[in-house]
Amino acid sequence: MPDPITRPDSALTPGHLIRRLHQISTRIFTERTHAAGFDLTPVQFIALDTLRENVGIDQASLANAIAKDRATLGAVADRLEQKGLVTRVVNPRDKRARELELTQKGREVVEAMQPIVMSLQSDILPGLTPDEYQTFIHLAAKAAQAAD
């Protein structure tokens, strides 16, 4: 019988645990949304959902809102545009800026995905009681806000 594997102390560091939870979150999101017939990444979904809540937002503001750099957001916007979920329009106040708008299809997709995405949230953090879940959300939001 092989010796049990010993985990190093670094396996319990915030960085490693956050990375691991990100992997779990992405896997569960992808499995559930693909099973429901949708082909969006978590970043694409949050971009669409943020556009739904912020009509007429420009690409730079959207990148900031979802904590992505402008280049990454540009690639996300390209893919969403190719899928027919968003359109880009020139900002009338700043010809260099592009505003993103949800298409009707984009609105329908984000609205159809919303209940699926909300229902999988507790599965991302298995083993936590409802109180522990709320504490985790509070602490993670506090740390993220402080880092910004």
Automatic annotation (TrEMBL):
Report domain HTH marR-type positions. Answer: 14-145
The alphabetical list of record keywords is:
DNA-binding, Transcription, Transcription regulation
Could you name the domain of life of the organism this protein comes from?
Bacteria
Q: What species is given as this protein's source? A: Arenibacterium halophilum
What is the name listed in the Swiss-Prot or TrEMBL entry for this protein?
A: MarR family transcriptional regulator
Q: Which PROSITE patterns does this entry report, sorted A to Z?
A: HTH_MARR_1, HTH_MARR_2
InterPro entries in the record: HTH_MarR-typ, MarR/SlyA-like, Tscrpt_reg_MarR-type_CS, WH-like_DNA-bd_sf, WH_DNA-bd_sf
The keyword Transcription is assigned to this record: yes
Q: Which residues cross the membrane?
A: none
